[in-house]
Specification:
single chain, about 250 residues, alpha/beta, Purple Acid Phosphatase, chain A, domain 2, six-stranded mixed β-sheet, 8 helices, about 20% strand, binds fe (ii) ion
């Protein structure tokens, strides 16, 4: 079983809940879709835990790049800009190096699927609009790509024979089997800052042998994560949004 995690965003409280869940199951691979840091108050602790997992399959996110000094944050909101500056100032040098060396997506996993932060054709693009989703499907060959970045869990299904694009809302705890003849772009949602008005940490398990996936939503200590953000002096909206899932 593979565990697909995205957009942890320095939220140690949420990551701890996910790791407790993972300990009770036989997870073969941890797969991370980027944005390990930014927004939250525990970048070093989150990176330490991620590095302990020794994931072979991870790509960088836009916040990882900015916090590592790989690029500028020209399109960030004021709270995100402030959090990135705070993160850069607080990262241990070894964690900053780890972030700076994260690979650019997409990355092909063996066997059988691709991972990207934003889109398989542009790591910083948000897969929200039809044109961008169409470009994404044209930009990779296989049947399946996992992506993050929008913090909204769900699944784009392209039925090529019927020429139809469907949005599939995944039900937590229910298996969804990938259909032969269809191609998929699948978002596990965000562990550390969900934005679908459900504050629970969001992630997926994927069974490559049976070609099926399952969304998980876990309660965690959102108050604790919010208090840590306020204590660190980060923008209060970053704390407030956690309990609302926005
Ligand atoms: Fe993100």
């Amino acid at each position: 079983m593979d565990l697909i995690l995205s957009d942890l965003h320095s939220n140690l409280h949420a990551l701890r809940a996910v790791l407790r869940f993972a300990r009770r199951r036989s997870i073969e691979r941890f797969v991370l879709l980027g944005d390990l840091v930014g927004y939250g108050a525990h970048p070093n602790q989150v990176l330490d835990k991620v590095r302990e997992l020794r994931p072979r399959f991870l790509v960088r996110g836009n916040h990882d790049k900015v916090c590592a000094g790989v690029c500028e944050d020209g399109d960030f909101s004021l709270p995100a800009h402030g959090a990135a500056a705070w993160t850069r100032a607080h990262l241990r040098p070894d964690n900053a190096r780890f972030l700076a060396e994260l690979p650019e997506g997409p990355l092909q996993l063996d066997p059988g699927y691709l991972i990207a932060h934003g889109s398989p054709v542009d790591e910083d693009a948000y897969l929200l609009h039809i044109r961008e989703i169409g470009r994404a499907f044209e930009g990779f060959q296989g049947p399946l790509c996992f992506f993050g970045h929008t913090h909204v869990p769900g699944c784009f299904e392209l039925d090529e024979a019927a020429g139809k694009l469907n949005w599939i809302t995944l039900q937590p705890g229910t298996w969804f089997t990938l259909q032969p003849g269809c191609r998929y772009l699948v978002n596990p949602g965000s562990v550390g800052q969900p934005r679908d008005r459900d504050p629970r940490a969001s992630f997926l398990s994927f069974d490559p042998a049976r070609r099926r996936l399952r969304l998980h939503r876990l309660d965690y200590d959102t108050d604790g994560a919010a208090r840590a953000i306020l204590s660190a002096g980060l923008h209060p909206t970053l704390a407030d949004r956690l309990a609302q899932g926005i």
